[in-house]
Amino acid sequence: MTRMEKLQHILEPIGRKLGKQRHLSAISSGIMMVAPITLISAFINIIANPPVTQELIDSGGGWILLKPWFWFATTFYNQIMLPYNMTIGFFGLIAVFGISYRLSESYKMDSPASASLIAIIMFLITASPVHTIGKDLVMNVSNLGSSGLFGAMIVGLFSVEITRFVINKKITINLPDSVPPLVQDSFIAIIPALLNLIIWYSLSLICQNYANCLLPELITNILTPLFNIALNPVTVILIVTFGNLLWLFGIHGTSVVYSILMPVLMQNMSANAENYINGGKNALVLYPSSLLLWMGIGATGCTLALTVLMTKSKAPQLKALGRLSLIPNWCGVNEPVLFGVPIVLNPILGIPFIIVPIVIGGLAYGLMAIGVLDIGHNVMWTMLPLGMQNFLMTQNWVNSVAEYLFMLLAMIIYYPFFKTYEKQLLEEANQNVEA
Q1: Beta-carbon contacts of residue 359 (< 8 Å; ≥ 6 apart)
Q2: Residue 311's CB: how many other CB atoms inside 10 A?
Q3: How many Å apart are CA 410 and CA 272, to the nearest integer?
Q4: What is this structure's pTM?
């Protein structure tokens, strides 16, 4: 057994088990299910916060061109930010729906929507109980956004488990077969909803009376220090490298990595957006979200650099695949390269596939730490051309330019391995012709 086969024998079962773990998958896919709203929020954030100040405009020069944008943003700031506040401001609440729906769907429950609705109500009870002030009902929404995301995950997962337990034990109200299915489903949900209410409302009252905080706040207070200790830059690089190793054996390493990092990633990205809007630029969290982006410029393994090299390859198959894959890879889709070259199970190209993200991640971290590159303060999204995503995250063109400079570095590292593999393919082609 070769070393490659031994490594595959060790990593493959670990990767497959993590990738198929039901609750991690529900968190990752559930948040990604509602993530498109973050792209809308990113654009709104850019419109509301132009990269210019009144002092720069008064100084004249090219800055004067941005005066209409600056006037519009400052004059109508509250109106512009309303959609942002109604999306990122309620991201925790929206995440409950996605997580609970995906988990109930994975269990093949008859009505995932009912389970999700129960989870949403339980989260509202624990995260934002209504209080009476005079004749007015007042709801505190501070825990419904990114700050309540950990609580949203816990409530979303366990609420579905409670609902599933009740239904599996057939502790439900059963109606005659003549009753329409929609009516039956609503009655089946009554007892699961009641048991959820008893459990979550009791926990909420206990937290309020003995911990002097709401349940999502308590969960966040417990989990945040643990995540901050575990997810330092070195750990993030190791997790991403583990995901890239899984890719070499045909396992979707990105889904595994996102299952592990997604909760903290979204929490930190949303917190950075809020800090930036409130003027706290120095309070931005540097990892894992910003570092994760740099380690994947040009998609997993920074393969855009390899794709560009392939477009000029002497090997016909590499040249054709490179030209076909260039635009998709530029927008972050590199499966054609991973499986077409292939990089999967390729010991030659597997080396730079692992090394390049580590080198670029380390350099990017150092440059962010000393202030040369900006830390992301908008919510991350995918399927965007190289440089565009980073600009949406930072509103700094320097970051976008840096992505292309890092890609050139990646090309330099990939080049000798690419030429070695290209030579191997050409030799094999010549042997086939001679035969």
Answers
A1: 409, 413
A2: 15
A3: 29
A4: 0.68
